Each structure stands twice: as C-alpha cells, then as structure tokens.
Amino acid sequence: MKQNSAQQNKPLDPRQNQGNIASNTLARFIAFLIRRGARLLTGARSLWVGCEPELKQRIYFANHNSHIDFILLWSSLPKSIRRQTRPIAASDYWMKDGFKRFLIQDTFSGVTIQRNREDNQDPLQPVIDVLAEGYSIIFFPEGTRNLNDDIELLKFKSGLYNLHKQFPDIEIVPVWISNLRRVMPKGAFVPLPLLSTVIFGCPLDQHLEMDKVEFLEYAQQQLLKLKEVEYQ
Question: Strand 111-113's sheet: what is its strand order?
C-alpha cells in the first residue's frame, strides 16, 4: 500500500535522530577503547609477511582460540581497511543479550550467522550478502573455538571452500593468531597481559580444480605454516 504525501514527507523525530547519533558515537568510543585495550594488554604485534595491508576485498581466515580473536585481528588492520572489513561471528553467542548484540552489530559492524542449518536456510547467506556488497570479512573456518591444547587446528568446516567457489576472485588470506589461548582462557572476562602476534600470510592460490577436502586441507596447511614465522 502506498503512503500518502503527508506520511512520506513527515519529518523524522528529532529525538530518534539524536538517539542514533548518541548510539553511533558510543559505539565508536567503545570500539576505540576495546581496540586499544586489547592491543595494550596482549602487547600485540602485526606481521605482514605474505601480503601488504592493501585496500582490496579479502577474506581473512584465522585460527580460533578465544572470543577476542576477531578483535585482535580487526584491530591489526589499518583504519581504512578496518572500516571495510566485517567480522563473522556466531549468533548463539553474540546475540544472547542486548550488550553483546550492541558490541557485535554496532561497535564492530559484525555479521552473525547460525552455526547449524535451520529451516533449509543457508547459514552462509549473510556472509554471501556482505561479500556481494564489496566488504572484506574476518572468517574462522574451524567454526568454533579450539580449546584443545593438543590440537593446532580443528578440522575446517566447508564454509571457506563454498565462499571460494562462489567468489573465486576475492583474495583469501591466512592469518595466524598466536598465544591467545593463554591470553584469553575459557571463562576469563579480561585478557591476561601476555604477548601475542597476528601474522598475515600469502593469499591462497586459486584452486578451483580442487574438491572440498583437498582445498580445505591446503588452506589449513597454509595457515599452519605461519606459526613458524613467529620464531624466525
């Protein structure tokens, strides 16, 4: 149904506009505090060993050990790139309450996804949408945090492979985040002051001929190679 001209030209409520401005200002301020705080507490350093921090569309994929993984990776990006990069996060954790929802959506411009398929809907659809809009993303192909000290990486889910098949021209960059299992152990609310390193590797070669198993194994090996860089 079409609105009449009076409804269409109805001015916005100034209080609503003021509320949006205040919310956006608060979100930017919190993002600044969290970004600086995370890097100070972890003493984080960024190593770009396989690529340069260029303003181009990329899928940054990383190992996943704690809830601050994406914050540390996101804060390692230059400002211009950070503004065009959206972290992908699990809705069952980040949409639990209003504060977490505010953090992931307003502060970090994150995209939340269901980890399990529901009602025949593709869990990756929100990710596909933002990539189609031209954004870069931060993606964790393990699907959940790896809390096992005896395993370097959990087996990758199929998401990274599916995104590569659908967006073959987007660079896929492995990023190894070191030491965060100790920096932010399970159950902790504040990071421990330990050194951490964010290492950006070479973009993956385009391997459209590989099947899912081959490609995911290749991606895992390229990510694991970066762990050795920290000690060189």
Answer: 45-48, 197-200, 171-177, 58-62, 136-139, 85-90, 111-113
d(CA 161, CA 157): 8
pLDDT digits (tens, 9 = 90+) for 50-83: 999 999 999 999 998 877 788 889 888 998 999 9
Cα diameter, the chain = 68
Q: Say yes or no to pLDDT of 178 above 50.
A: yes
The answer to whether 159 touches 216, Cβ cutoff 8 Å, is no
Classify residue 106 by its DSSP letter.
I
Candidate from 51-60, 115-124, 149-158 with smallest mean pLDDT: 115-124
Measure the CA–CA gap between 132 and 117, rounded to whole angstroms. Answer: 21
Angle at 84 between CA 147 and CA 72, to 5 degrees: 30
> How many residues comprise the chain?
232
- For the entire predicted model, the pTM comes to 0.79
Contact (Cβ atoms closer than 8 angstroms) between residue 76 and residue 197: no
- At 26, give phi and psi (nearest 5°): -65, -40
Q: What is the distance between the alpha carbons of residues 175 and 140, in angstroms, rounded to a whole number?
A: 10
CA distance 184 to 209: 39
Ramachandran class of 28: left when φ > 0, alpha when ψ lies in -120 to 50, beta otherwise: alpha
Q: Which of 96, 40, 50 is nearest to 71 (CA)?
A: 40
